[in-house]
Write a structure and sequence with these properties.
Length: about 300
């Protein structure tokens, strides 16, 4: 894992040097594009479903990419408490999404085109096919109610439009208390993207190859897109480019309105998944250490130490 951390650091340095030669800000040195709430419309974000790929026990970190390729995406999420219409500090946000070709960590044995097991893959008793951790992570909001992740633009899989899953926990004591069995979940949502942006990104590698085996699932054809955009709320992330082209990277922002004092959302039972319980990923300490090394190398000491 130390070698993985080193390779990630070297990759980020290569990105940094390439962009600096072109006069652009580097993903390795870019910090918090949005430090305050950008849209203070005080609207409750609708709760939706966990989906089949939710897990417990994710890593507290800013950079969730690991070795995944794709268009870099800085995702800044502002959280508003709809009871006060003020930014919500120290809220713990968990996000997860598939990679450029539609695979989720923890479920890499599931074919994204069919949702069936791939040849030779098996499920463990908890429903996982593996203990991979890519494109999953946890961050706490700042005093201004904003948290940022560095990821890659998501891919897609059968029956679903391009999206990112999100949970918000408002009563977490510290980063060691983020388990869903320890701290209640006040919001479970899904975030989406403008369809024209999706179409443009998917013309690039490595996304384009997936078009040969599965057509893009349009937003309008995804019933959860409608559910997530109800009650006057927009779950579509606002996105700008870091440079002259999409491949230079993207910055996304969205405000999420939550009821910080709401009773916890169910994390067990048939509404969660067919097993009735969220599987816990077995994360080795070496994997956590590698994630910390990557964040520290990029100057995200807060992410590494867990301070908000």
């Amino acid at each position: 894992m130390a070698k993985r951390a080193e390779s990630l650091f070297q990759r980020r340095e290569a990105e940094r040097n390439a962009l600096l030669r072109r006069g652009l800000t580097s993903p390795a040195v870019k910090r918090d594009q949005y430090t305050t709430i950008q849209n203070d419309t005080c609207v409750l974000a609708p709760d939706v479903v966990w989906g089949p790929y939710g897990v417990d026990g994710e890593i507290y970190r800013h950079d969730i990419r690991e070795d995944n390729s794709g268009v870099n995406l800085y995702l800044d999420i502002g959280v508003i408490d709809i009871e006060t219409c003020e930014p919500l500090p120290d809220a713990y946000l968990t996000i997860w999404h598939c990679n450029a070709t539609g695979y989720y960590s923890g479920f890499t044995g599931i074919d994204p085109d069919t949702a069936e097991l791939t040849d030779g893959a098996t499920k463990m008793s908890n429903g996982l096919t593996d203990n991979e951790t890519f494109l999953r992570g946890i961050m706490a909001t700042s005093s201004e109610g904003v948290a940022e992740f560095l990821t890659v633009f998501p891919g897609y899989y059968t029956t679903r439009a391009t999206h990112i899953h999100l949970t918000v926990q408002a009563g977490v004591a510290d980063r060691n208390s983020t388990s869903y069995s320890t701290s209640a979940v006040q919001h479970i949502g899904q975030l989406f993207f403008d369809q024209d942006l999706i179409n443009s990104v998917y013309e690039l590698d490595p996304y384009a190859a997936h078009l040969d085996t599965l057509d893009i699932i349009q937003n309008v054809d995804d019933k959860l897109y409608t559910s997530a955009n109800a009650g006057g709320y927009s779950s579509v992330i606002s996105v700008t480019q870091l440079g002259d082209s999409l491949s230079d990277g993207l910055v996304g922002y969205i405000t999420v309105g939550v009821n910080a004092s709401a009773a916890g959302i169910a994390t067990t039972g048939g509404s969660v998944n067919p097993l009735g319980v969220l599987p816990t990923v077995s994360v080795a300490e070496s994997v956590r250490a590698a994630a910390t090394s990557v964040d520290v190398a990029a100057g995200y000491g807060a992410a590494a130490t867990g301070t908000a």
